[in-house]
Amino acid sequence: MERDSLVHKELAQAASVEVGTSLAKEQLKLLKLDVALRKLNHDLECAKDFHNKYYLFSDATDLRNVTNCVEVLGIWHRIDPTCDIEIAFHSGGGSVMAGMMLFDFISRLKTTHKVTTSVLGYSASMAAILLQAGTHRVVGKETYILLHEITGQAVGKVGEIEDTTGFLRKIQQRVVSIFMARSGGKIERAVFEKNWTREWWLDSEEMMKWGFADEVI
After folding, report:
1. Residue 113 catalytic?
2. 57 and 39 within one domain
3. Is-contact 138 108, C-beta < 8 A?
4. Could you tell me the pTM of the whole model?
């Protein structure tokens, strides 16, 4: 009898372990499902105005904000490789290198998407350059953009400073080329380069006049 009791006890313990293992497996499945749902919700949260594909870029053009924007646009592209997208800028600008990352990404999207870039309030410096990246550029009647030469800093030996200055000049010429190309011949290079050496604010009428916008709404 004692032996039978011991056997029953061992069987009960084994059954308990088996049940515990099964519960652990189920809990693991639920945990994985929860993680997957959290990731999906995060992606949807990042994709602001998910169904309308409308992204409001309302902060500095630094690496963090640009990366967030690229991630959202990438989600939209993967979901629908031909959908219309709008990116509305309300920004004081920031890093030209981070901004050019977004500029190039928008340029890639334009091969299969109509990308509307727009301004709400104002877009200054790099944000004004990003306005030019869109397939169609839209500005509000009471909006403004600020154009100026590239800003940078150079430290170190004379040769290093000269190298940095040369690189900044190269970027500057690329930016000038972007504006000239999007102007559609409405402004001469000499006129543009003369004006943007200062803080050159343009209203919606001036943007249309010089070819830096396609539509005022």
Report:
1. no
2. no
3. no
4. 0.74
